[in-house]
Amino acid sequence: MPVMHNTEKEAFFRELGLFAGTLAYRITSSGEWNIRGFIDIFRNVYTLSSDSKVLSKVLEIHLLPNLLHFAEAMGYSIEPAEKQNWYPDFTFISKQDNNLKFAVDLKTTYRNRLDPDFCNGFTLGSHGEYSGHFCYILTMTQGFTLSAKLRIYLQ
């Protein structure tokens, strides 16, 4: 990574951290998910399952408008992953320097029932084309109690 990108990485990290601190308020009310499930054309509502893949996709969809607004405010464009399960979930590309890219991955996992200070595992991706790798982790306990943390994994 070029030295000149260190300042941009620090600024992106700082602003992403501030933004991440607001995300739980954007997706929950009184500690409960704003989204209750899926609705079909007959107006049947299907509640969310506890499957972390389903929850990850719902999280991506629910947060996308907020991520787009954040990217625009920071002077970045945003590209979602080309395919499901490709790293990262979102690539932020500087509008001033196309070589300045940040990987942002959204992760969902559950707290370890035997030790709530730990969570179940998840995979992290990494590729050399990014100036920084950032991971937003949504941890849940049984009953969908949410706790969100921004974790930073730098190359």
Question: In terms of structural class, how would the helical and strand content be classed?
Answer: alpha+beta
Low-confidence stretches: 144-155
Q: What is the arithmetic mean of pLDDT?
A: 79
- In which range does the helix fraction lie? 25-40%
Global outline: globular
Radius of gyration: 16 Å
Strands of the widest sheet, in order across it, are: 5-6-7-8-9
Beta-strand percent range: 25-35%
For the secondary structure, the number of strands is 9
Q: DSSP helix count?
A: 2
> Main sheet, how many strands, which sense, barrel?
5 strands, mixed
Order of helices and strands: HEEEEHEEEEE
Number of domains: 1
**Ends: how far apart?**
9 Å
Task: Spell out the key features of this protein.
alpha+beta, five-stranded mixed beta sheet, 155 residues, 9 strands, two-stranded antiparallel ribbon
Descriptive notes:
Helix 1 packs across helix 2. The chain has helices spanning 5-27, 52-74, and strands at residues 28-29, 32-33, 37-39, 45-47, 76-80, 90-94, 101-110, 132-141, 145-153. A hairpin with a 5-residue loop joins strand 3 and strand 4. It is 30% helix and 32% strand. The strands form three sheets. A five-stranded mixed beta sheet has the order 5-6-7-8-9, with helices on one face. It is built from two helices and nine strands. The protein is an alpha+beta fold. The chain has one domain (5-153).
